[in-house]
Amino acid sequence: ALNLNDIQSDIIVGQQKIQELFYFFAIADVPTFKQKLSSTIAPIITSAQQMLSVTTQPLAAVNIAFSQSGLTALGVTDNMSSSEFASGMFSGNIVLGDVSADWEPVFKGTEIHGVFIVASDTSANVDAQVGKLESALGSSINKLYTLQGNSRPGDQAGHEAFGYLDGIGQPAISGFATPIPGQGVVQPCVILAGLDGDIQQTARPAWSVGGSFLAFRQLEQKVPEYNKFLLDNAPPAAGLTVQQRADRFGARLFGRWKSGVPVDLFPDADNPAAVTNTSLVNDFDFTHAGFDFATDQTHCPFAAHIRHMRPRADASNFNPAGNAIMRAGIPYGPEVTPAEASSNTSSLARGFAFVAYQSNLNKGFVELQSGWANQINAFSKALSPGFDAIIGQHILGGARWVTGMDPTNPALNISLPFQFVVARGGEYFFAPPISALSGRLAM
Ligand code: N7H
């Protein structure tokens, strides 16, 4: 069984976050930091067990994770068996297809040693908890950067900035979560390091067992520009208004309607009521009786974001469960203003504070982004269906395009003239088991 008292809460419990602060820091005074880590910080780090019951949930949940340079600063020289983690995200940003010049300066390099992730219902609770962390740690850390995540207001709660419901497709950890029909079931070792089945198990330092690698990305979303793109480029469809055509186009780019309902089951129109039907919302694999699986795009397009990210029946020659990630991100930034909407131009920064946990970065986030999203032909389709329109990036900035968006003319090639999602940077971290905070990391 999993040691839920030792696993940090953000990794495996999908806690409902209304406000969430990412607080990036550098360690300035190692002996003081180690002492406070053990005496004051470890006791307030939230465990998975605590989050499972409302009676034990803290007012503000706190998690902590360290980069390679953070571990090095602490004198922890164990080989973490991840080359991506060892070199940091910035050194690998070209492989991910990023444009380095778009990155926030703080992420360009390895100066970030760690991150606190503080989540609660209100920003006042978050601020109070951050105040406690800062007064405990004093000048032993320097605050380098913060990113304030917030759930969107009203009926957009749970929806990301483009308006699509998020948090539906998540792996179920066997022995911990009961899967709904169609949900991918993974062994705990796919998300947590050092457990049975982890291909690096014998190489993991003992203190790291039950921790998880965290890929953090600040992904800016060009919302008014995306909306305009949909209106201007939606394929023709008899009987639909311009807005309905744009809505269908967007749903086909994602593979889900804004309500979260899968296009594979509802290709023609949204059916918002179906999203609460747990036996429908994930129970599809892109195959349909009477349709040729190799070419059929009358249902979900091959290029859709969710099909790139979880290929289901497309990936018979892969081991998709081994590539599973646990997603725990949150939107950031303000709502689109009327002036931005009417000018079709973003003037304020908004997007997604993306968080993915996995035991193997190379098979998880890195493969999903560079091996799948950025590829026009990720799953050996006879037709090259195109990029993941939402997050796919062309290494070296070449042209991006998709097909499959017009069910009656799937070969129609639609060019994607700009990135709707711009990578502003990020870092790889290791979220240790809580015991390590007063153990190896404090010594
Ligand atoms: Fe994606 N979005 O919120 O609009 N994603 N994602 N993602 N994504 C998914 O199934 C989105 C990004 C995955 O199991 C949905 O929960 C946005 C990155 C995976 O069927 C929606 C951004 C990576 C899945 C979005 C973004 C992934 C998934 C459908 C960037 C990894 C599950 C709702 C700003 C490299 C697939 C849902 C499955 C689904 C959104 C980024 C991965 C709506 C806006 C960078 C594995």
Question: Explain this structure to me?
Answer:
With 443 residues, the chain is α+β, with helices and mostly antiparallel strands. It is 21% helix and 17% strand. Helix 7 (223-233) crosses helix 8 (242-254). The longest helix is centred in the first third of the chain and has 15 residues, at 123-137. 44% of the residues are buried. The model has no long low-confidence stretch (mean pLDDT 95). Bound molecules: delta-meso nitroheme.
In short:
With 443 residues, the chain is α+β, with helices and mostly antiparallel strands. It contains 12 helices and 13 strands.
Shape: globular
Query: Pairing-aware structural class of the strands and helices?
Result: alpha+beta
**Largest sheet features:** 5 strands, antiparallel
Q: Percent helix among the residues?
A: 10-25%
Task: Work out the count of structural domains.
Answer: 2
| Count of β-strands | 13
| Beta fraction | 15-25%
Distinct ligands:
delta-meso nitroheme
What value does the average pLDDT take?
95
Q: How are helices and strands ordered from N to C?
A: HEHHEHHEHEEEEHHHEEHEHEEEH
What is the count of helical runs?
A: 12
User: Distance between the terminal alpha carbons, to the nearest Å?
Assistant: 28 Å
Give unreliable regions as ranges.
Answer: none
Report the radius of gyration as a whole number of Å. 22 Å
